[in-house]
Amino acid sequence: MPRLGSENLTSETGFILLGLTSHRKEQILLFAIFLTIYLLTILGNLLIILLVNTDVQLHTPMYFFLSHLAGLDIVYVTTTLPQTLAHLLAGKGVLSLTRCMLQGGSALSLGSTECLLLGVMAYDRYLAICNPLRYISAMDKKHQHLLATSCWIIAGVFSMVNVVFILHHSFCGPNHINHFFCELHFLLDLACDDIKVTKAIFNGLSAFIVLVPFGVILCSYSCILYSICQMQSTTRWQKAFSTCGSHLVVVFLFYGTIMSIYIIPQSSSFPDRNKNIAVMYLVVTPLLNPIIYTLRNKDVHRAVVKVWKRRNFEGKL
Protein backbone atom coordinates (compact mmCIF):
# COMPACT_ATOMS: atom_id res chain seq x y z
CA MET A 1 0.00 0.00 0.00
CA PRO A 2 1.40 3.45 -0.86
CA ARG A 3 2.59 5.61 2.00
CA LEU A 4 -0.06 8.31 1.50
CA GLY A 5 -2.83 5.73 1.52
CA SER A 6 -1.39 4.19 4.66
CA GLU A 7 -1.39 7.52 6.46
CA ASN A 8 -5.00 8.12 5.43
CA LEU A 9 -5.95 4.67 6.69
CA THR A 10 -4.43 5.40 10.11
CA SER A 11 -6.09 8.82 10.34
CA GLU A 12 -9.47 7.30 9.51
CA THR A 13 -9.34 4.29 11.84
CA GLY A 14 -7.46 5.97 14.70
CA PHE A 15 -5.54 4.15 17.42
CA ILE A 16 -7.14 1.34 19.37
CA LEU A 17 -6.26 1.23 23.07
CA LEU A 18 -6.27 -2.35 24.34
CA GLY A 19 -6.79 -1.16 27.93
CA LEU A 20 -6.05 -3.08 31.11
CA THR A 21 -8.34 -6.02 30.34
CA SER A 22 -10.66 -7.31 27.62
CA HIS A 23 -13.05 -9.11 30.02
CA ARG A 24 -16.31 -7.22 30.42
CA LYS A 25 -16.81 -7.97 34.13
CA GLU A 26 -13.27 -6.84 34.91
CA GLN A 27 -13.83 -3.67 32.87
CA ILE A 28 -16.92 -2.81 34.93
CA LEU A 29 -15.04 -3.52 38.16
CA LEU A 30 -12.11 -1.35 37.05
CA PHE A 31 -14.56 1.41 36.06
CA ALA A 32 -15.98 1.46 39.60
CA ILE A 33 -12.50 1.40 41.19
CA PHE A 34 -11.03 4.09 38.90
CA LEU A 35 -14.08 6.33 39.29
CA THR A 36 -13.79 6.11 43.09
CA ILE A 37 -10.05 6.83 42.93
CA TYR A 38 -10.61 9.77 40.58
CA LEU A 39 -13.24 11.39 42.81
CA LEU A 40 -11.13 10.86 45.95
CA THR A 41 -8.06 12.28 44.20
CA ILE A 42 -9.93 15.42 43.17
CA LEU A 43 -11.44 15.80 46.65
CA GLY A 44 -8.19 15.22 48.56
CA ASN A 45 -6.10 17.58 46.43
CA LEU A 46 -8.80 20.27 46.42
CA LEU A 47 -8.83 20.08 50.22
CA ILE A 48 -5.10 20.78 50.33
CA ILE A 49 -5.46 23.78 48.00
CA LEU A 50 -8.37 25.10 50.11
CA LEU A 51 -6.46 24.74 53.39
CA VAL A 52 -3.29 26.36 52.06
CA ASN A 53 -5.23 29.33 50.69
CA THR A 54 -7.43 29.88 53.75
CA ASP A 55 -5.01 29.31 56.65
CA VAL A 56 -2.37 32.03 57.09
CA GLN A 57 -0.08 29.64 59.02
CA LEU A 58 0.24 27.53 55.86
CA HIS A 59 1.45 30.49 53.76
CA THR A 60 4.99 29.12 53.69
CA PRO A 61 7.17 27.95 50.76
CA MET A 62 6.67 24.27 51.62
CA TYR A 63 2.87 24.53 51.45
CA PHE A 64 3.05 26.81 48.41
CA PHE A 65 4.80 24.03 46.49
CA LEU A 66 2.48 21.43 48.02
CA SER A 67 -0.56 23.34 46.73
CA HIS A 68 1.09 23.43 43.29
CA LEU A 69 1.57 19.66 43.49
CA ALA A 70 -2.07 19.21 44.47
CA GLY A 71 -3.29 21.33 41.56
CA LEU A 72 -0.93 19.52 39.22
CA ASP A 73 -2.24 16.12 40.31
CA ILE A 74 -5.84 17.21 39.68
CA VAL A 75 -5.03 18.23 36.11
CA TYR A 76 -2.76 15.19 35.63
CA VAL A 77 -5.45 12.60 36.41
CA THR A 78 -8.08 14.61 34.51
CA THR A 79 -6.09 14.40 31.26
CA THR A 80 -6.31 10.61 31.23
CA LEU A 81 -8.76 9.07 33.71
CA PRO A 82 -12.07 10.45 32.32
CA GLN A 83 -11.16 9.08 28.88
CA THR A 84 -10.10 5.77 30.43
CA LEU A 85 -13.39 5.59 32.34
CA ALA A 86 -15.33 6.20 29.12
CA HIS A 87 -13.40 3.42 27.39
CA LEU A 88 -13.99 1.00 30.28
CA LEU A 89 -17.71 1.78 30.23
CA ALA A 90 -17.94 1.38 26.44
CA GLY A 91 -15.80 -1.76 26.45
CA LYS A 92 -13.37 -0.38 23.86
CA GLY A 93 -11.13 2.61 23.31
CA VAL A 94 -10.42 4.38 20.03
CA LEU A 95 -8.60 7.71 19.65
CA SER A 96 -7.75 9.73 16.55
CA LEU A 97 -4.13 10.74 15.98
CA THR A 98 -4.90 14.32 17.06
CA ARG A 99 -6.64 13.28 20.30
CA CYS A 100 -3.91 10.73 20.95
CA MET A 101 -1.18 13.37 20.59
CA LEU A 102 -3.10 15.84 22.78
CA GLN A 103 -3.60 13.29 25.53
CA GLY A 104 -0.07 11.92 25.36
CA GLY A 105 1.53 15.37 25.13
CA SER A 106 -0.49 16.71 28.07
CA ALA A 107 0.26 13.67 30.24
CA LEU A 108 3.98 13.88 29.38
CA SER A 109 4.11 17.60 30.19
CA LEU A 110 2.29 17.20 33.52
CA GLY A 111 4.28 14.12 34.54
CA SER A 112 7.52 15.97 33.75
CA THR A 113 6.33 18.96 35.77
CA GLU A 114 5.78 16.66 38.75
CA CYS A 115 9.32 15.27 38.40
CA LEU A 116 10.78 18.78 38.48
CA LEU A 117 8.46 20.01 41.22
CA LEU A 118 9.41 17.14 43.53
CA GLY A 119 13.05 18.15 43.02
CA VAL A 120 12.21 21.77 43.93
CA MET A 121 10.36 20.59 47.05
CA ALA A 122 13.42 18.60 48.13
CA TYR A 123 15.62 21.66 47.60
CA ASP A 124 13.17 23.71 49.69
CA ARG A 125 13.45 21.22 52.58
CA TYR A 126 17.25 21.25 52.27
CA LEU A 127 17.37 25.03 52.66
CA ALA A 128 14.86 25.01 55.54
CA ILE A 129 16.75 22.39 57.56
CA CYS A 130 20.40 22.82 56.54
CA ASN A 131 20.52 26.58 55.87
CA PRO A 132 17.75 28.13 58.01
CA LEU A 133 19.45 31.57 58.09
CA ARG A 134 19.40 31.81 54.28
CA TYR A 135 15.98 30.22 53.91
CA ILE A 136 13.83 33.36 54.18
CA SER A 137 15.79 35.26 51.51
CA ALA A 138 16.38 32.25 49.25
CA MET A 139 12.73 31.20 49.29
CA ASP A 140 10.91 34.53 49.19
CA LYS A 141 7.76 34.99 47.09
CA LYS A 142 9.74 35.90 43.99
CA HIS A 143 11.89 32.76 44.09
CA GLN A 144 8.89 30.55 44.92
CA HIS A 145 7.00 31.69 41.84
CA LEU A 146 10.14 31.55 39.71
CA LEU A 147 10.88 27.94 40.66
CA ALA A 148 7.27 26.79 40.24
CA THR A 149 6.86 28.56 36.89
CA SER A 150 10.18 27.14 35.64
CA CYS A 151 8.95 23.60 36.33
CA TRP A 152 5.84 24.16 34.20
CA ILE A 153 7.72 25.87 31.35
CA ILE A 154 10.60 23.38 31.11
CA ALA A 155 8.20 20.43 31.17
CA GLY A 156 5.97 22.08 28.55
CA VAL A 157 8.90 22.67 26.20
CA PHE A 158 10.10 19.08 26.74
CA SER A 159 6.69 17.71 25.82
CA MET A 160 6.31 20.03 22.81
CA VAL A 161 9.68 18.97 21.39
CA ASN A 162 8.70 15.31 21.60
CA VAL A 163 5.28 15.95 20.03
CA VAL A 164 6.84 17.86 17.10
CA PHE A 165 9.36 15.09 16.43
CA ILE A 166 6.71 12.35 16.61
CA LEU A 167 4.40 14.25 14.24
CA HIS A 168 7.14 14.10 11.59
CA HIS A 169 6.66 10.32 11.42
CA SER A 170 3.98 8.47 9.46
CA PHE A 171 1.64 5.90 11.03
CA CYS A 172 0.36 3.23 8.68
CA GLY A 173 -0.38 0.33 11.02
CA PRO A 174 -0.54 -1.57 13.23
CA ASN A 175 -2.70 0.86 15.20
CA HIS A 176 -3.15 -1.13 18.43
CA ILE A 177 -1.57 0.39 21.56
CA ASN A 178 -1.21 -2.00 24.49
CA HIS A 179 -2.05 0.65 27.07
CA PHE A 180 -5.05 2.32 28.73
CA PHE A 181 -4.09 5.82 27.54
CA CYS A 182 -2.13 7.24 24.64
CA GLU A 183 1.41 7.49 26.02
CA LEU A 184 3.81 9.00 23.46
CA HIS A 185 6.61 6.61 24.42
CA PHE A 186 4.56 3.69 23.07
CA LEU A 187 2.88 5.58 20.24
CA LEU A 188 6.30 6.22 18.68
CA ASP A 189 6.90 2.47 18.38
CA LEU A 190 4.00 2.27 15.90
CA ALA A 191 5.60 4.63 13.37
CA CYS A 192 6.31 3.11 9.96
CA ASP A 193 9.57 4.93 9.21
CA ASP A 194 12.94 5.10 10.96
CA ILE A 195 12.56 6.31 14.57
CA LYS A 196 16.16 5.94 15.78
CA VAL A 197 16.90 9.68 15.96
CA THR A 198 13.55 10.54 17.54
CA LYS A 199 13.93 7.65 19.99
CA ALA A 200 17.40 8.86 20.99
CA ILE A 201 16.14 12.42 21.52
CA PHE A 202 13.12 11.18 23.47
CA ASN A 203 15.24 8.93 25.72
CA GLY A 204 17.88 11.62 26.25
CA LEU A 205 15.36 14.28 27.25
CA SER A 206 13.48 11.78 29.44
CA ALA A 207 16.70 10.87 31.25
CA PHE A 208 17.38 14.58 31.85
CA ILE A 209 13.86 15.30 33.14
CA VAL A 210 13.89 12.27 35.46
CA LEU A 211 17.50 11.91 36.60
CA VAL A 212 18.45 15.56 37.19
CA PRO A 213 15.68 16.30 39.74
CA PHE A 214 16.16 12.82 41.21
CA GLY A 215 19.85 13.65 41.70
CA VAL A 216 18.86 16.93 43.39
CA ILE A 217 16.53 14.95 45.68
CA LEU A 218 19.24 12.45 46.63
CA CYS A 219 21.80 15.20 47.33
CA SER A 220 19.28 17.28 49.29
CA TYR A 221 18.17 14.42 51.49
CA SER A 222 21.71 13.21 52.05
CA CYS A 223 22.50 16.64 53.50
CA ILE A 224 19.22 16.66 55.41
CA LEU A 225 19.91 13.24 56.91
CA TYR A 226 23.34 14.40 58.04
CA SER A 227 21.85 17.56 59.61
CA ILE A 228 19.12 15.58 61.36
CA CYS A 229 21.73 13.31 62.93
CA GLN A 230 23.51 16.40 64.33
CA MET A 231 20.37 17.81 65.98
CA GLN A 232 20.32 17.93 69.78
CA SER A 233 16.60 18.66 70.10
CA THR A 234 14.41 15.54 69.93
CA THR A 235 11.36 17.63 68.98
CA ARG A 236 13.12 19.26 66.02
CA TRP A 237 14.54 15.88 64.96
CA GLN A 238 11.09 14.27 64.96
CA LYS A 239 9.49 17.18 63.08
CA ALA A 240 12.20 17.23 60.40
CA PHE A 241 12.16 13.46 59.99
CA SER A 242 8.35 13.35 59.77
CA THR A 243 8.19 16.09 57.11
CA CYS A 244 11.01 14.66 55.01
CA GLY A 245 9.87 11.06 55.45
CA SER A 246 6.49 11.77 53.83
CA HIS A 247 8.21 13.52 50.92
CA LEU A 248 10.56 10.56 50.37
CA VAL A 249 7.63 8.13 50.24
CA VAL A 250 6.06 10.19 47.43
CA VAL A 251 9.41 10.45 45.64
CA PHE A 252 10.13 6.71 45.64
CA LEU A 253 6.57 5.85 44.60
CA PHE A 254 6.61 8.27 41.67
CA TYR A 255 10.22 8.05 40.51
CA GLY A 256 10.44 4.29 41.01
CA THR A 257 7.59 3.64 38.60
CA ILE A 258 8.66 6.35 36.12
CA MET A 259 12.23 5.00 35.93
CA SER A 260 11.05 1.43 35.44
CA ILE A 261 9.40 2.53 32.19
CA TYR A 262 11.53 5.37 30.82
CA ILE A 263 15.02 4.47 32.08
CA ILE A 264 15.20 0.70 32.66
CA PRO A 265 15.21 -1.40 29.44
CA GLN A 266 11.87 -3.01 28.71
CA SER A 267 11.33 -6.74 28.45
CA SER A 268 9.22 -8.32 25.72
CA SER A 269 8.47 -11.25 28.05
CA PHE A 270 5.89 -9.17 29.96
CA PRO A 271 3.84 -7.18 27.41
CA ASP A 272 1.40 -5.87 30.05
CA ARG A 273 4.15 -4.72 32.45
CA ASN A 274 4.28 -1.08 31.31
CA LYS A 275 0.56 -0.34 31.54
CA ASN A 276 0.32 -2.02 34.95
CA ILE A 277 3.21 0.10 36.22
CA ALA A 278 1.62 3.21 34.68
CA VAL A 279 -1.37 2.71 36.99
CA MET A 280 0.95 3.47 39.91
CA TYR A 281 2.29 6.84 38.76
CA LEU A 282 -0.82 7.98 36.93
CA VAL A 283 -3.65 6.74 39.17
CA VAL A 284 -2.34 5.69 42.59
CA THR A 285 0.33 8.34 43.31
CA PRO A 286 -1.96 11.39 42.79
CA LEU A 287 -4.39 9.75 45.24
CA LEU A 288 -1.70 9.02 47.83
CA ASN A 289 0.00 12.44 47.66
CA PRO A 290 -2.58 14.32 49.79
CA ILE A 291 -2.87 11.36 52.18
CA ILE A 292 0.88 10.98 52.70
CA TYR A 293 1.52 14.72 53.09
CA THR A 294 -1.32 15.26 55.57
CA LEU A 295 -1.48 11.98 57.53
CA ARG A 296 1.07 12.99 60.20
CA ASN A 297 1.23 16.71 59.48
CA LYS A 298 0.16 18.63 62.59
CA ASP A 299 0.02 21.98 60.73
CA VAL A 300 -2.53 20.58 58.27
CA HIS A 301 -4.47 18.93 61.12
CA ARG A 302 -4.74 22.30 62.89
CA ALA A 303 -5.85 23.97 59.67
CA VAL A 304 -8.60 21.36 59.18
CA VAL A 305 -9.84 21.90 62.76
CA LYS A 306 -9.85 25.70 62.29
CA VAL A 307 -11.80 25.48 59.02
CA TRP A 308 -14.25 23.00 60.58
CA LYS A 309 -14.84 25.22 63.65
CA ARG A 310 -15.24 28.27 61.44
CA ARG A 311 -17.87 26.52 59.31
CA ASN A 312 -19.76 25.39 62.42
CA PHE A 313 -19.63 28.90 63.88
CA GLU A 314 -20.89 30.47 60.65
CA GLY A 315 -23.64 27.84 60.45
CA LYS A 316 -24.95 28.78 63.90
CA LEU A 317 -25.13 32.49 63.06
Automatic annotation (TrEMBL):
Q: Does the keyword Transmembrane helix apply?
A: yes
The yes or no answer to whether the keyword Transmembrane helix is present is yes
Q: Which PROSITE patterns match?
A: G_PROTEIN_RECEP_F1_1 (PS00237), G_PROTEIN_RECEP_F1_2 (PS50262)
The molecular function terms of the Gene Ontology recorded here are: G protein-coupled receptor activity; olfactory receptor activity
A single GO CC term, please? plasma membrane
**Residue ranges of the G-protein coupled receptors family 1 profile domain?**
44-293
InterPro entries in the record, alphabetically? GPCR_Rhodpsn, GPCR_Rhodpsn_7TM, Olfact_rcpt
Family under the similarity heading: Belongs to the G-protein coupled receptor 1 family.
- Per its record, how is this protein called by name? Olfactory receptor
The species this protein was found in: Crotalus adamanteus (Eastern diamondback rattlesnake)
